Amino acid sequence: MSQAEIGVIGLAVMGQNLVLNMADHGFKVAVYNRSYDKTDAFVRQRVEDRPIVGAQSLTELVDQLARPRKIMLMVKAGDVVDRLIDDLIPLLSEGDIIIDGGNSLYTDSTRRTQRLKAEGLHFIGTGVSGGEEGARTGPSIMPGGDVAAWPAVKPIFQAISAKSDGQPCCDWVGPEGAGHYVKMVHNGIEYGDMQLIAEAYHLMRQGLGLSVDAIQAVFADWNQGVLDSYLIEITAELLTFKDDDGEPLVDKILDAAGQKGTGKWTGISSLELGVPVTLITESVYARCLSALKSEREEAAQRYPASEVPPLSESETRAMIAALHDALYASKIMSYAQGYMLMREAASEFDWDLNYGGIALMWRGGCIIRSRFLENIKQAYDQNPSLNNLLQAEFFEQAVKQSESNWRKAVAFAVTQGLPVPAMSSALAFFDGYRSARLPANLLQAQRDYFGAHTYERIDAPRGERFHTDWIHSGGHAQSGSYEV
Ligand code: 6PG
Fold first, then answer.
1. Tell me: the pLDDT tens digits for 318-340?
2. Residue 466 — pLDDT band, cuts 50, 70, 90?
3. Which CATH code fits 183-433?
4. Which among 147, 139, 138 has a CA at the least distance from the CA of 113?
5. CATH number of 6-176
6. Which of the listed residues 190, 268, 358 should we mutate to test ligand 1's pocket, taking the one with most ligand atoms within 8 A of CB?
7. 264 an active-site residue?
């Protein structure tokens, strides 16, 4: 019997679907799950005439694989991955490859790459996006780690991935934890996109008093234009669902959001690297705030909303158009921030990231897939060394066209007392980014006043430090160059 081309460990839904996808593309797959019952049931029910074989032990799995052995872990991120690596190392031979397809923290993937290298083995940490359906029909795959392993894995990954204009939504991302880093930013952007859609929904529902059906029609319409994306599409679809009593199901869902950590990691990384990824981070906080359900209910009694006169029909129509533009412009800020973060990470960790390639990987298969990513890809195709998305002509025009409606929508939310943390933080970021002068001069003066932290002057070369004795100089500037 021929040997399997790849082994997959972990037969939860994502693992199962990925295995079926591989088998449908003609790859022979050996599978192993901690409990053999699950492996047995999967092989009995799903395999039919597909080239899939079950293994009862890790040793059996390893024996079933052609060399170099490729073993993909589809298990929960964290200690389980390290324990499996511990168990596999003694069973493997030089040049064999372990792939982690979970949502692992990128620093773990960097550590694992180095660890396996020291053992003469290769590690790939890969983002896999697209949920259960994507895994089955074509996910977006973002591999990074030991590039020596890529030629052996590439044919399988590129065959099973989604395609955009015939190109696979999978390419080599970079060394160490680069693949999981890019997946983390993908998920952060996913948080931002979801929050923006939720804010637009909330303004239409609470601020404009629209019915769920009317909002459903708005999202369906938006999905025909520049906002065309998977997340807008599923939002329009899920709003059609009714509960047993005929009421919209969405109204029956408790408004306390969960999270598994990738958005938080994006925020933490942005703080560590000093990149203003405000929209994603606000989206994480918005979930945290939503989780304070009982406290919010109590505060709602204490601080009731003030009455605001309803908008006329034409004003309502204009506000829906404003919301569209606010969502679009905010989304541009979010992606600009996400790309700023990846650029800084690439510089910090010495990774050569291909930004256009990342847009292509996100163009299809993944949760943030959208028409918009085609525009990002084109911007990087036109200028591969583009410093910031906001410097690209296409996005400059889009922001300028949306700007006044964006302000109108945020102002509406503020007067209504409705929270739009993502839209408003995006606008604050934009206003800061386009300001040649910010009040940081005053911050520097304060820091120098109480802590002699020194400051730079606008009329001296950058890097030259000054200090003023603010307390004893009696209001007269007695600043002097500061010797570091
Ligand atoms: C994807 C998703 C996937 C998962 C998120 C959900 O790309 O397919 O992002 O990875 O659904 O981890 O994250 P939260 O539970 O934190 O919302």
1. 999 999 999 999 999 999 999 99
2. very high
3. 1.10.1040.10
4. 147
5. 3.40.50.720
6. 190
7. no
